[in-house]
Amino acid sequence: MSDIIQLLPDSVANQIAAGEVIQRPASVIKELVENAVDAGADEIQVVVKDAGRTLIQVMDNGIGMSDTDARLSFERHATSKIRNANDLFEIRTKGFRGEALASIAAIAQVTLRTRQSDEELGTEISINGSELEYQRGVSCPTGTIFTVKNLFFNVPARRKFLKSNSTELRHIINEFQHIVLSHPEIGFSLNHNDSDLYRLPAGNLRQRIIHVFGKQINTNLNNLKSETSIVNLTGFIGKPENARKTSGEQYFFVNRRYMRHPYFHRAVMKAFERLISEDTYPSYFIYFDADPHSIDVNIHPTKTEIKFENEQAIFQIIQAAVREALGKSSVVPSIDFETEGVVDIPVLRKDSSFQAPEIPTNPDYNPFDAGPSPGGYPRKKEVLYDWEKLYNDPGPTRTETPEEEQRLFTEEEVNTQKAAEFIQLGKRYIITPVKSGLMIVDQKLAFERILFEQFIFSIAHNRGIAQRELYPSKLDLEPSDYLMLLEIKDELAMLGIDIGDLGTNTVVINSCPAGIESTDLRELVESLLEEYKQTEQKVGGSAIKNVAASLARAASAGSLRILQHSEMQQLIDELFACENPNYSCDGKKITTILKQGELEQYLK
Ligand code: ADP
Ligand code: MG
Q1: Per-domain boundaries in the chain
Q2: Residue 278 above 70 pLDDT?
Q3: pLDDT of 158 over the 80 cut
Q4: Which of 120, 123, 309, 595 is most solvent-facing, going by the fewest CB within 10 Å?
Q5: pTM for the whole thing?
Q6: Of all protein residues, whose CA lies closest to atom 13 belonging to ligand 1?
């Protein structure tokens, strides 16, 4: 037999490696900006076109490279940052693998211009899918400019995998934020399609956070500081009363590198326990300074999880530090750490944030007003056709559910409820007897389903949703939330939410659907965006359906309140008038029946 093993050509090996390091335009920005930081720059400018698909340019005023280094920097495993394996435990730079530039050059058209301060002339290199086009002398400022064009031009599968421009831009903004929040001493700017998204002058950490998130965050930042032999912590935590429905302003950094750490996140949340309501998140910006020997960053190139030697002890340190920082704020004037778990931390009361809006249904409006069916029950046969176009996969579990379980209740069965008794449990469940036992209805999911079907029905029938004019309220948003809101502006308009773009991350909301009586628009918009982020990740579904589901879910949070008998009756009626009364949009069970036989079992 002849030999069949061959070494892959570098260009192919680099393309394969690139798949690991460069997933999307945001990864290119992360790598290039981190290199600029490592090069000691104090001004870094990022210019992006079409969310990075056509152009990404990173300019720095760092140390630059010699002619030879410029050429070498594109080789795989070419790095100036470590020399041997021991150096892995002393890492203070962002990069060290020497893979990024080789990877980027394998899947894009890259030009590098660089000059060191003691050189008259700089050097320019052009590489096209790992092929060197030319290298020549050029006059340019001290520092380095990387220009990356047509990302994935030679990897169509990757190009197809990219999401919409606004989604890709959001990823870019996230990566950018992680770096700028680690390095307030460096000035940064980010420009997209000729408009500045950020201009961040060098300053201290508090100033940097304010520049990134807006002035209003200033009063929400409590200092946090803790020095121990294992780790030093500094940074800020937000006040409990400002905890928000959207996750997003929760940041950990270790040795000036962003990290995700779900376990440490739990430590922070534990310290906030009982100070905030369960579905809200406090802001935090917590910076760890740890001996590089005690952490392991040598993990997957793009992963942001980092392992610590002493995680349990650090958990305790974080919890204590956050409590102490909270104690210093006016909210919890004195917390005695020695009696932790015994002392009753006063539950914060801020009624407005827990106040439930009115039921999100409109009693005068019956979407299925094709006339009552013989049983007095709304009929909806006529709508089935259009409906299904929009509404062909109402939930993941639905298709996997056996036929008889899918339609748990017959109309007849529900009609026997007309005179029924209802019991409400914990502002969340409605319990009522049915033929076979006790029916339990999840009030929130029921509201969500009803609202969702109203939305979809109105759109499918071009009815337009009844709007409630509002006193126009202005909302300042984070850039990524702002972009996302604009991205779904048209869908929201179809659902009755009229949004005006005032530029620079500000919008004005002029109306909302009549069924939603929410008083706190900011809260509604925040949870809408949070829901949408999550729905969008679970790929699939048309934009309008995702937005409708997200809005229904966000608005249904307000339904968790005590209901009158007539309201419960109406809710049950409207639920069973729905096309799919059994499952929520994301496949959760809305109703269940506790069978009489099961009850007998319990009471044996
Ligand atoms: P790594 O950052 O892991 O070393 P890269 O492929 O990102 O690997 O970069 C390779 C080398 O190129 C770096 O080690 C550094 O010496 C040089 N380099 C990259 N970007 C810059 C820059 N902006 N300024 C100066 N040198 C740079
Ligand atoms: Mg690098």
Answers
A1: 10-203, 208-294+305-328, 381-604
A2: yes
A3: yes
A4: 120
A5: 0.64
A6: 79
